[in-house]
Amino acid sequence: MTATVSPTDSPAGTPADARKAARIAAGRAGPAWLLPLGVVVLAWLFPILWTALTSLKPEGGLTGLTPSFVFTPTLDNYIELFTERDYGRYLLNSLLIAGGATLVSMVLACFAAYALSRSDIAGREQIGMWILSLRMLPPISTVVPFYLILSGGGLLDSYVGLVGVYLSFSLPFAIWMLQGFFAEVPRSIDEAAQADGAGHLTILFRFIVPMTKSGLAVTTIFTFVFAWNEFLYAFLLTKDRWVTLPVRLGSTITPFQTDWGFLTAGAIVSFLPLVLVVFLLQREMARGVSLGAMR
Amino acid sequence: MDEAAGIVLDGISKTYPGARQPALDGVSLGIEPGAFFSILGPSGCGKTTLLRILAGFEYPTAGRVIIGGRDVTGLRPRDRGIAMVFQDYALYPHMTVERNITFNLRNKGVAKAEIAERLATTAGILRIERLLDKKPRHLSGGERQRVALGRALIRKPRVFLMDEPLSNLDLKLREAMRLELGRLHQELGITIVYVTHDQSEAMTLSSALAIMNGGRVQQTGEPAGVYADPANIFVARFIGSPSMNVFNMGRHGASLRAVGEPAAVLPLPPGAAIGEGQEVLVGIRAHHLSLAAPGEAGIPVEVTFTEHLGRSNILVCRPVGDAGYLVDQDAIQVETDAETRFSAGDRLVLTARPEALRLFAADGRAIGAEAGMMATAAAGGA
Amino acid sequence: MTTTAREPERVPAAPADSGGAATGAVYRGERLVPALMLAPVVLLLLAVVIGPIVFLIDTSLYRQNLFQVTPPRFVGVENYTYLFDTSRFTTSLLRSAVFTGTALAAEFVIGFALAAWVYRLRHLPGMALVRTALTTPILVAPIVAAVMWRFMYQPDFGVINHLLSLVGIPAIGWLSNTSIAIFSIAAIDVWQWTPFVFLIVLAGMHSVPEEYYEAAELDGAGFWRQTLFVTIPLLRRILVIVLLLRLIDLLRAFEVIVATTQGGPGDASYTLPVLIWETAFVSFEMGDAAAASVVLLVLVAIIITTLVRVVARSGVTGRQG
């Protein structure tokens, strides 16, 4: 595809030709490319769609069954999930743990991000970088000491223990994201507010926070998502009382006789709430994902 | 608190951590109550830093800030009785215009009735009554500017600080707002400290100004005085458009001469305190250059091109022969009235009245002109 | 009238009631507030992150089995020399490299191509929907993604082999074939995280002023040249950051392997995290596991340092004077 034609180069062109030329000149492709793109997107979503489909099959779990696309959907798997398998409890555990970690992280992160993005504290950039790097530590490395420490303090399978461990990744993440959003507010706003008699807390909660609402929403949701989806820590640091949904799902797999009907239904249960939230906030979400890496 | 206050800046220095050069180096200024005081200088000269120290957003490394006779160096911005108009206006985007303007009063717990009354007065002065319910993003540039002024005005501060408040406006609006600022200053009798890099704003608005460069005050005084008697070569060049011509010449008897073939000659100003043969920098504004009488010695030049400005013409000339006496410039600019027409290639001999010449020593300081000397001494005193 | 500095001595001192020095202290005290806001977070992070790391390094210097009554014995760097001598450590490094390299390359090529595609269609409706749709895999828990794909990879009734059989391709042991397994697992990560690369590169492309493309167009540069000489150089910083982020994530990838093959078949997908896992929670050799963990930490730390350099060099903040 050569794209060197400009509208003026095609004197004999019809209006349609001119439009096409203008489009090419602007580095754009035509609507004909929409269809293949749609196919790619659908293919990409296929694993999720297939999981959803399987969860609605009456006997999705039977090994040896040929995959089928046409069947009578039923909610049996979901009903059994919540009645006989007590998934409500795991769901609630996940909600409490991810919610708790998110709440604590967000409150602390507001203060820390304010200090990092809007003050002249010596070494604040180094501190910011240090916090950012903490978010990238491999959990498999830290889980051993966490395990030994928590078991030493009798905190295995405890709410405080797990939420505390979750702070090790959710707090740095929240600070990092918020700092980026806060930095977008011009400094002159702080100074105007300062001259208007506002102290640091007023500036933070009456100016910066209201001005970065969507950034806060995005950060809250992603902090929650990462805590909600966490597996390794929860798997090793809980036994029974505080088992979370991913742990329960992960331990359903056995080399033999995996019950795929329940498993796929469980996967959808863990995933659907997040998708709903993201669809409600789709514009902010895409922005949040990219901002996270660009700052 | 609403009396206009004078300001004294006493030996203010500021060095940012890790910076090699101080941003401000012993700046001392006095500003009279009710003055419209401009701080003028090229970008990076420290004028914004100085304003921010005056406001209390930055803490000086050394020196004192005194407002209305009270040392406020250790006070928070809110306790200094100042209001500030920011370059980007810094309107609170999540609040309506009314809330923006009244935030300070509400924050201080002023009675509702009084807030309403002061809001009405302020909005009336600035003619923004119909904007009160809007959010800043729905306002035009000029309207935002007015709201920013309103937010400052309603507090009846003792000092207004303005950081390039007009630089975000387009040309027409800028001129209108300039008049408006002048009007406000006259009507309200307030003290305004105004930071700008635009000399026409500073010259037209101010009752007094300070020229800064490299973190130091170069000269203070009334605009006309600074223009007429620049304290040093930097000020001479910075103020006025086109820039002052500067030649390197030596005294030969009753004239100033640049060696070369043909020689460039200017008359010696009366009472100039320089010895025979001493080299000086000679400054002369474009409109002070005129044609020499036939046969009279002067500066022989050839016109390179002309610019027609409507009210006057600018001739851009190059010296005939050796151009070595030009200091940091490669052409001589001459301003003539609109009727005088020359064209490229014309050869002229230029001269000037001796009183119009300004002499500077090799280190850039003004020689001889008494007012300039005094101003230099005062400004460079720290 | 020249307005010059008054003699400072003649300035009246601050009234006693407001107390210049005292208020100065308040002012400076207020400047300390941000430090006070930051302090608890830094302390908390020191406790929940740095504490364990110190603990980890300490543990790695002892011989300690969780299920033996003998107390931990100090052995110095013996755990490390032992680790470096074992062939399974070398294997795990190799597997980690293959897994990381394959997935990383695929995620970048596909993510970049998708982004370029969507960018060229940006004036058409539905692009926001594409972005949102492609955000969803990121939201799936890695363990759940592994489970979903394991289901689809089933050799006999998995949907992938089923679809392949429709076009006459015989069944493939996606997770049981030693030469395929690690790539099958990498594909799961590619599925989940290519959208991340896509979203960021796309946002980056939108941040490039269109004039650059128009100028390149006038210079006669086609799509590929524009990509090579405009997009990639301008997005270099973002690309490097995303690259390093993905690199770290892939190096520490764990769930996706444990929930599919547990490192097998044989040692076909035995990466460094799997080795740590096995040493710690199958053999319960805490000292050895800690030593391997420290090795992984060092690897990640090297990458993080590079990342920090890249970010720092491009200047995070600027302050006007």
Mean of the pLDDT scores of chain C?
81
Q: Which strand order do you get reading across the main beta sheet of chain C?
A: 1-2
Counting helices, strands and paired strands, the structural category of chain B is alpha+beta
> Count the strands of chain C?
2
Low-confidence stretches of chain C: 1-26, 315-321
Give me the secondary-structure category of chain C. mainly alpha
* Biggest interface: A-C, 105 and 107 residues
User: What integer value in Å does the Rg of chain C equal?
Assistant: 28 Å
How would you describe this structure to a colleague?
The complex is a heterotrimer of chains A (295), B (382) and C (321). Chain A is an all-alpha fold and 295 residues long. Chain A has 14 helices and no strands. Chain A is 70% helix and 0% strand. Chain A is globular, with a radius of gyration of 25 Å. Chain B is α+β, with helices and mostly antiparallel strands and 382 residues long. Chain B contains nine helices and 21 strands. Chain B has helices at 47-55, 97-108, 112-126, 141-153, 171-188, 199-205, 223-228, 233-238, 370-379; strands spanning 7-14, 24-31, 36-40, 62-67, 70-71, 82-85, 159-163, 191-196, 208-213, 216-221, 245-252, 255-258, 264-267, 279-284, 290-291, 299-308, 312-319, 332-337, 347-351, 358-360, 366-367. Chain B is elongated. The relative contact order of chain B is 0.12. Residues 369-382 of chain B have low confidence and may be disordered. Chain C has helices spanning 20-59, 78-85, 87-120, 127-139, 142-153, 159-166, 181-207, 210-218, 223-234, 236-251, 255-258, 272-281, 286-313; strands at residues 62-63, 73-74. The radius of gyration of chain C is 28 Å and the shape is globular. Chains A and C meet through helix 2, helix 4, helix 5, helix 6 and helix 7 of A and helix 1, helix 3, helix 4, helix 5 and helix 7 of C.
